[in-house]
UniProtKB/TrEMBL annotation:
SUPFAM superfamilies referenced in this protein's UniProt entry, alphabetically: Homeodomain-like, Regulatory protein AraC
InterPro entries: AraC_XylS_family_regulators, Homeodomain-like_sf, HTH-like, HTH_AraC, HTH_AraC-typ_CS, Tscrpt_reg_AraC-type_HTH
MF-aspect GO terms: DNA-binding transcription factor activity; sequence-specific DNA binding
Stored Pfam families: HTH_18
SMART domains: HTH_ARAC
Alphabetized PROSITE patterns for the sequence: HTH_ARAC_FAMILY_1 (PS00041), HTH_ARAC_FAMILY_2 (PS01124)
Protein name: Helix-turn-helix transcriptional regulator
Keyword list, A-Z: Activator, DNA-binding, Transcription, Transcription regulation
Domain HTH araC/xylS-type: 164-262
Length: 267
């Protein structure tokens, strides 16, 4: 799968009858994640396990094509349901969304003037007017949106479950030059205590988890793009290509350039 986030569709729509209804089980659309805001009126989302939620103004439903959920215009509602949505795909979307949302559909509240709404509207406007300079700008904006959604949905997660917060932070921010020590400072924990608690729960240290995600991303980029090694290393959260090269060779036994040459990757 393409390592970059990709915007598949985005639109504003309105409906006024229960004929607006979709089932995601068996639905075509690959591995798309859909973020659908209620601008006015209301909709419903029924999760794969039968839970049903109204999705009111100021809320957003999130689902994955094929996840078994269903959504639409409520039978008992009278009025106009106005919505906007964006649909994206990519390895990073799968990784981040799987940590933020329940598989099978979820609903979250979003602040009307907050970063999530601002980025959502910017993505929609750029898509409608074809204003993305290139796929990298698109991927960057989608990534920032996912981070904003995560912050809004899990704002209290740091206090409730610091170890899970650390895991999610690594999943979402491994492309940035963060360190485990910085995450420990955010959580008000010692690095040693965080590492011990993290390994007890997830079976590996936070440092190993961070390094593995970065190297997997780097490997995919070496195979799927013609970007030079320095650019790849920066895109994977390494401050210098030398550090990336050493870590890559320890993991895969060859340097990034040797790996690309041997595997026939782009460039």
């Amino acid at each position: 799968m393409d390592p970059y986030l990709k915007l598949i569709a985005a639109s504003r729509e309105e409906y006024s009858t229960p004929s607006y209804y979709w089932e995601n089980r068996g639905r075509n659309g690959g591995s798309q994640w859909v973020f659908q805001r209620t601008l006015s009126g209301r909709a419903f989302l029924e999760t794969h396990d039968g839970d049903r939620r109204d999705v009111m103004e100021g809320e957003m439903m999130v689902f994955h094509h094929g996840d078994g959920s269903a959504y639409g215009y409520p039978l008992e509602f009278r009025g106009v349901y106005e919505l906007s949505f964006i649909a994206m795909e990519g390895e990073l979307a799968d990784s981040i969304c799987a940590q933020i949302f329940r598989y099978g559909g979820d609903v979250c509240s979003i602040e009307g003037l907050g970063e999530t709404v601002r980025l959502f509207d910017e993505i929609l406007e750029r898509f409608e007017n074809r204003r993305f300079r290139d796929r990298l700008e698109m991927a960057e904006l989608l990534y920032r949106f996912l981070l904003a959604v995560s912050r809004e949905k899990n704002g209290v997660g740091r206090l409730r479950d610091p170890v899970a917060y650390c895991y999610n932070a690594i999943e979402m921010r491994h492309v940035n030059p963060i360190t485990v020590a910085e995450l420990a400072d955010e959580l008000g924990m010692s690095r040693e205590h965080l590492a011990r608690s993290f390994k007890e729960r997830y079976g590996e240290s936070p440092g190993n988890h961070l390094r593995r995600l970065r190297l997997e991303r780097g490997r995919a980029m070496l195979l799927g793009s013609s970007l030079d090694v320095e650019t790849v290393s920066l895109s994977c959260g390494y401050a210098a290509s030398d550090s990336f090269g050493r870590a890559f060779k320890r993991e895969y036994g060859v340097s990034p350039r040797e790996f690309r040459s041997q595997s026939g990757g782009a460039g």
